UniProtKB/TrEMBL annotation:
One of its GO terms (cellular component) is type II protein secretion system complex. Residues 66-188, 271-391 form the Type II secretion system protein GspF domain. It comes from Denitratisoma oestradiolicum. NCBIfam families: GspF. Pfam families: T2SSF. The keyword Transmembrane applies. It is a multi-pass membrane protein. This is Type II secretion system protein F.
Length: 400
């Protein structure tokens, strides 16, 4: 079976579009005619490319889809039946297309894990590895439920981070806009009154006038340069992995922010390892998958180093400790898990501990950052007011 995207006309002449499954294009057109539809366009889904099709499932959509699939499988439906239900109830055309194609792969005799592997941008390696382990162990509903729990928890943490970053970002944007407007429009009109004065202006006022002139002449260029740099930076760093790794190491070493980022990354790595090992994936393979899943190059290299040491017979706790990258609490909990034979549970506990640590540091950082931004903005505006008022005060003193 193969999935097709079609556009057709119904008997009333209205355009219809959607997806369907058929053995070949000819069978697809025949199926459309049986539905009283006149096919106008028929395209097979293209799965070619090393990176697979473009990503269409956000983190929230993936968590919701996984939860629904887990509930349907736990209710006794087959994989094909569960995908059919999800396909029928989806109200997003692109999501329906993705589920339709997955169902077509399953109907063709492929496993769900093999079907998911066709879309690596939507379903990361850890997702496919857990599904494959669940299928092999005959415990796919339980594995999908655990995976849904993890995805929902990660989505909630990501939402908290974004929400906490929103207010400082808005304050910074408003502050820059206000200061820019003052320098570009207000200050020139006010200081124009001093242009014909024979007295020497105070140093602070002269600095303000120079800054205002520079902002008017160079401001648009600097803004454009900032936007272009922000858009080009990811590609520039992707082409220079050594430079990107150096920047990431320095970012993780920053006081305050670095600890927060390390806690977030460690939580995801520990959670990934716990889920994979609990799902029956061998430890060395689980470490390799966790290394590929991490977005931080220094942490990926540390996990790969730990995987090599574990392959040579070194305990995981010692391997993680010798990387000198992760918080000591991770290796201590892993050591306890190895001693008690409950490594998956202790890895998941370590993930929860690091997540709690990240939440605490995020709250503290936000509490410190918000008043600091307000004070900084107030200080800049105060300097502008003082620079404007100093000549006025000096002129009044000369008059008296």
């Amino acid at each position: 079976m193969q999935a097709f995207r079609y556009k057709a006309l119904d008997t009333a002449g209205h355009a219809r579009q959607g997806t369907l499954e058929a053995e070949n294009p000819r069978s697809a057109r025949e199926a459309l005619r049986q539905r009283s539809l006149t096919p106008l366009r028929l395209d097979a889904f293209n799965n070619s490319g090393s990176q697979g099709p473009a990503r269409i499932l956000s983190a929230t959509l993936l968590a919701d889809l996984t939860r629904q699939l887990a509930v349907l499988l736990d209710a006794g439906l087959t994989v094909e039946g569960a995908l059919s239900v999800l396909m029928d109830q989806s109200d997003k055309p692109k999501v329906r297309e993705r589920i339709t194609n997955l169902r077509a792969e399953v109907l063709a005799g492929h496993s769900l894990a093999a079907a998911l592997a066709r879309y690596p941008r939507d379903f990361p390696p850890v997702y496919g590895a857990l599904v494959r382990a669940g299928e092999q162990a005959g415990a796919l509903p339980r594995v999908m439920s655990r995976l849904a729990d993890d995805l929902e928890r990660a989505a909630a943490l990501r939402h908290q981070v974004l929400s906490a970053s929103l207010y400082p970002a808005l304050v910074s944007i408003v502050a820059l806009a206000v200061v820019g407007a003052l320098l570009a429009y207000v200050v020139p009109q006010v200081v124009a009154a001093f242009a014909h004065a024979r007295q020497t202006l105070p140093l602070l006022t002269r600095a303000l006038i120079a800054t205002s002139s520079a902002s008017r002449s160079l401001g648009p260029f600097l803004l454009l340069l900032l936007i272009v740099s922000g858009l080009a930076a990811p590609r520039f760093l992707a082409a220079r992995p050594a430079l990107a790794e150096t920047l990431e190491r320095r970012l993780l070493a920053l006081p305050g922010l670095g600890r927060l980022l390390l806690a977030l990354a460690t939580s995801r790595i520990a959670s990934t390892l716990g889920l994979l090992v609990d799902g029956g994936v061998p430890l060395v393979e689980a470490l390799s998958i966790a290394a590929r899943a991490s977005r931080w190059r220094p942490l990926s290299q540390a996990v790969e180093q730990a995987a090599r040491m574990v392959r040579e017979g070194v305990p995981l706790s010692r391997a993680l400790s010798e990387t000198r990258t992760f918080p000591p609490v991770l290796s201590r909990l892993v050591e306890s898990g190895e001693a008690s034979g409950e490594l998956p549970a202790l890895l998941l506990r370590a993930a929860q501990q690091q997540e709690s640590e990240a939440r605490r540091r995020l709250s503290l950082l936000t509490a410190l950052l918000e008043p600091a931004l307000i004070l900084t903005m107030g200080g800049v505006v105060l300097l502008i007011v003082i620079a404007i008022m100093l000549p006025v005060i000096e002129m009044n003193q000369l008059v008296h």
